[in-house]
Amino acid sequence: MSVLLHVLLTLCLTVTQGGCTYSNNHWGEWNDSQLQPTIQKLMKGYNRYLRPNFNEGPVEIGMSLDIASIDAISEINMDYTATIFLRQRWRDSRLVFPGNESVSVDGRLVSLLWIPDTFIPDSKRSFLHDVTVENRLIRIFSNGTVLYALRITATIACNMDLTKYPMDRQVCTLQLESWGYNLQDVVFYWTRGNDSVKGLDILRLAQYSVESYYTSVSEAVYETGQYPKLVLHFALRRNVLFFILETYVPSVLLVVLSWVSFWISQSSVPARTCIGVTTVLTMTTLMMGARTSLPNANCFIKAIDVYLGICFTFIFGALVEYACAHFYTMKHHTIEDLHRELQREFNESNGNGSIPIVRSTQPNRSMVIATTAEQSANSDTRNNAGAKEKAPAQGCGPSSAKDALCRVVSVFVVENPHDIDRRSRKVFPLAFLFVNILYWLYYLFL
Q: Quick check: 117 and 176 in contact, CB under 8 A?
């Protein structure tokens, strides 16, 4: 095995190849007489299958990250894709050599050294960049410290709470663990605490902005033992301006458009019906479009769904308002026709004191009109009787329950159908404004 390693190192030092260059008996700041004996001495008897400090305590591995980019954040799959530069440092006493310089060797020589088995537990897909060669860096310092750097792109899971979407704030993590070495073998630590992570504060994302981030050291407990774990926590705040322009403003305009029907005459049935139906269908299309970028099956009732539901309710309420107004208008016209019929019957009467009786359209009820003579003769009697009947009529019964019921029923009694539109012009805007205040206060500040 040592003979094979000696042959491979000799070939690397004599052929110009990538980052391992040797020409004119000079490689970097090392000449032929210095470098070859040093590398040969380092690799003599080196066993890459045994970790440093074997049987002498755990290896301390310091880590740092550079976040090159966060390419995509998916609410449907609940993950994000990031490209990172991962740097690991540890000390291997078997690689100590004289001097105070460092040696950078070809990344393809990583197969000759012991390296940590670090992995990303929440990764769904990941790969190491290999253009034009595998993006690895190995640097050996004179005190035996090894710097191992990688460029990785990984799709990492992120559990999201979408109840306040699109005013939400998501906290995602990037975890690093050891696959096979437990806490008795290796120990992970951040080299400079929170300063070990670079690049997050200058990232520019499409829908998010990085609000804060911090690092932590933890342990991963599995059935096979306890393993070291490093965690990077970063908070993402969604930019709501895009959704205000795309969804909220059109929804408000549709609600306001539905109120236009309150100023249109009730006799213009096609115009008011067209406005009501058109706004309802447009609102339905807007609600369906707002859900296309979100998971179809989930347990979240999102903030945008609540707002679209509120707008749909007001639009549908405006359509129902016209249906009620039209119903009471037709009913009012029927009563006026009945009055005109009674007046005509009275005028055609022979004036001999007879009382024409005309049956109304409502069952078990009849309207009686007396002659002028009888009205004058019985005026006192009617006044007395009316005074006696007025008291119970105002209370609608002796009990307080009946009084309350009568007051509730009196609210829905419409004397003039045009009052419905006049009241709706004030009630609908005020109610919509009040609901909006509650909505934005809850989702922005609570």
A: no
